[in-house]
Write a structure and sequence with these properties.
Order of helices and strands: HEEEHEEEHHHHHHEEEEHHHH
Largest sheet: 5 strands, antiparallel
Number of strands: 10
Radius of gyration: 21 Å
Strand content: 15-25%
Oligomer: single chain
Number of helices: 12
Structural class: alpha+beta
């Protein structure tokens, strides 16, 4: 199994510029007595629960010099500002730019959220946690339908189906005869079938449903008080079929003894989905994970490539079951 609670190398509180610490302390309203860094997330941006005198907030911070995390935090703030009320999302308290001086001057983006008391699902996945996630996802899908133009992101069809380096992964593996060791061994016919599914992904991923597009265990909190699933990290919105987020999440529950096929059949999100469209999405997602999982590990996010390799293996195993292959 993969430990999604231990994927981040976060900047510690003491390394934040004094101006940023003062801004976050001001939002908390009392001196910070405890800093619990977020273990999940794959990034090195600051993210932690700050506590003091019985109060707590969840805070994020990143400098403009970080060309990946800074725009992601800006995007998240913009999306959260237009999300409809009542969605299962931690409440954003404030989003500010902080000017920093000293030896490393610049602008920092800070986000402050309500602190949600709960836990990350998936250790292990249970039927009850999956049901909570499903109920929240149905609510989210309905709420996202009314987002204003300009906030829906690009399309999944374009993101995956038009990228030749991803779309052609299985054909290249068939020609080379050298599949990576982190996926089950596949014969030429199976690789060819996967390539055909990838070739069909542009059509399979057509749709105008607005999707979270990054729904994993580490972006979900099951709130302790009412067992409600809340979704975090809203910076990768995309459009596609309404079942795409749900299918991508379900691939992670199968190793925990949960049958994803039965959930696909009874969910209002996926009950009417074409099985070949679902398989095409899984195949192109698997190609994406193989493509990126084969790259060298990243010092700033050493668990990102292992996550890709782990996910690729899960996808091939589930597709083999769905397609009736012998591995």
């Amino acid at each position: 199994m993969f430990e999604y609670a231990k994927t981040a190398q976060r900047m510690p509180w003491v390394q934040l510029p004094a101006e940023v610490r003062r801004r976050l302390t001001g939002e908390l309203g009392v001196p910070v007595e405890d800093v619990a860094l977020a273990g999940g997330g794959f990034t090195h941006g600051f993210a932690a629960v700050l506590s003091g005198s019985g109060r707590s907030i969840f805070a994020k911070a990143a400098p403009a010099s970080d060309t990946f995390i800074y725009p992601a935090y800006l995007r998240e703030a913009a999306v959260l500002d237009v999300l409809p009320e009542g969605l299962p999302v931690p409440r954003l308290l404030t989003a500010d730019s902080v000017e920093v001086g000293g030896a490393h001057p610049g602008i920092w983006q800070v986000l402050c959220f309500e602190a949600v008391h709960g836990y990350m699902p998936g250790a292990p996945w249970t039927e009850s946690d999956l049901e909570a996630v499903h109920q929240s996802l149905v609510s989210v899908q309905s709420g996202l339908a009314g987002l204003p133009p300009g906030f829906t992101g690009g399309s999944m069809a374009e993101e995956f189906g038009e990228d030749a380096s991803i779309r052609g992964v299985f054909g290249a593996l068939e020609r080379s005869g050298a599949a990576p060791s982190f996926i089950p061994a596949l014969n030429s016919a199976q690789l060819g079938e996967l390539q055909e599914l990838c070739n069909f992904s542009y059509e399979a991923l057509a749709g105008d449903a607005v999707l979270h597009n990054d729904l994993r265990a580490d972006n979900i909190i099951i709130r302790t008080s009412d067992s409600k699933a809340l979704f975090c990290d809203w910076n990768f919105l995309s459009t596609g079929p309404e079942w795409a987020d749900w299918v991508a999440l379900l691939l992670y529950v199968r190793p925990h003894g949960i049958d994803p096929g039965s959930w696909l059949q009874r969910s209002s999100l996926s009950a009417s989905a074409d099985p070949n469209h679902v398989d095409s999405w899984l195949a192109i997602l698997g190609a994406y994970m193989i493509h990126h999982g084969s790259k060298p590990d990243m010092p700033t996010s050493p668990q990102l490539r292992p996550h890709g390799r782990f996910t690729a293996g899960l996808i091939i195993e589930w597709l083999a079951e769905r397609r009736g292959w012998q591995l």
